C-alpha cells in the first residue's frame, strides 16, 4: 500500500495552471479568527502566531500563494515603483487576501482566486506586498477584475487593516502603504515572487 502523505502547503502545492491570472490560495486566517495563524515553514502545519490583542479583525480570507517567495525580485519591483528605502523582501510567501460573499469558517484549505490589485506595503524596510483578489465564481465579487471596480470604502477598509494590524498603543507604526495598484501590477508581483521562489528553492 502506498502511503498517502499530505503535501506541504507552501512547497508541495502548485500555484495553478493559469497563474498569475488565477492563483491557488492556501488560507491561514478567516474573519472570525481572534488568533493569527500562519503556516509553520518546517512542518507545513498551521500554528498560532499570536493572539490578536486589540480590535483588529481580518476583513476577508487571508493566506498566501504557494511556491512564491518575496526576495530580490519583489524588492526590485518595489524600488522601481518609487520605494527607494526598501532593503529586502520579507522572506515569506506572497500574502493574498480573498474577497468573498461567503462565510468561510476556518483556515487550512485551498481556493482559487483572481488577483485584482494590491498594496505596496513597506514594513521596516521590507517589501511586503498584499495582493487583493476575489474568489472564483463568487456571486458578489466574482465578476471584478481590477481593484478600481471596488467601492472606495472597501479599499479604505482593507488599507486600514493592513496599516494598523501590527500597531501597539502609544508606539509609532512601522509599516506604510506606498501604492495601491491594479491587477496588471499585482500579476507582476506574483511572477516576481515565483522567480524569487525558484531562485531560492528550485522549481
Automatic annotation (TrEMBL):
GO terms for biological process: phosphate-containing compound metabolic process. SUPFAM superfamilies: Inorganic pyrophosphatase (SSF50324). GO terms for cellular component: cytoplasm. One of its GO terms (molecular function) is magnesium ion binding. Keywords: Hydrolase, Magnesium, Metal-binding. It is an enzyme of class 3 (hydrolase). Its EC number is 3.6.1.1. Its cofactor is Mg(2+). PANTHER family: INORGANIC PYROPHOSPHATASE (PTHR10286). This is inorganic diphosphatase. It comes from Soonwooa buanensis. The lineage of its organism: Bacteria, Pseudomonadati, Bacteroidota, Flavobacteriia, Flavobacteriales.
Amino acid at each position: 500500500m502506498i502511503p498517502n502523505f499530505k503535501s506541504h502547503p507552501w512547497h508541495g502545492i502548485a500555484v495553478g495552471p493559469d497563474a498569475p491570472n488565477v492563483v491557488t490560495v492556501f488560507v491561514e486566517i478567516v474573519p472570525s479568527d481572534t488568533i493569527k495563524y500562519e503556516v509553520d515553514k518546517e512542518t507545513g502545519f498551521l500554528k498560532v502566531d499570536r493572539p490578536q490583542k486589540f480590535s483588529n479583525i481580518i476583513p476577508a480570507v487571508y493566506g498566501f500563494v504557494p511556491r512564491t517567495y518575496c526576495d530580490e525580485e519583489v524588492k526590485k519591483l518595489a524600488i522601481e515603483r518609487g520605494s527607494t528605502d526598501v532593503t529586502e523582501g520579507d522572506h515569506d510567501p506572497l500574502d493574498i487576501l480573498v474577497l468573498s460573499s461567503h462565510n468561510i469558517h476556518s483556515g487550512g484549505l485551498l481556493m482559487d482566486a483572481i488577483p485584482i490589485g494590491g498594496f505596496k506595503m513597506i514594513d521596516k524596510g521590507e517589501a511586503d506586498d498584499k495582493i487583493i483578489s476575489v474568489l472564483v465564481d463568487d456571486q458578489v465579487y466574482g465578476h471584478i477584475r481590477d481593484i478600481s471596480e471596488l467601492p472606495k470604502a472597501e479599499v479604505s477598509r482593507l488599507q486600514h487593516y493592513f496599516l494598523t494590524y501590527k500597531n501597539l498603543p502609544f508606539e509609532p507604526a512601522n509599516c506604510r502603504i506606498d501604492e495601491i495598484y491594479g491587477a496588471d501590477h499585482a500579476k507582476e508581483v506574483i511572477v516576481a515572487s515565483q522567480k524569487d521562489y525558484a531562485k531560492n528553492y528550485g522549481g
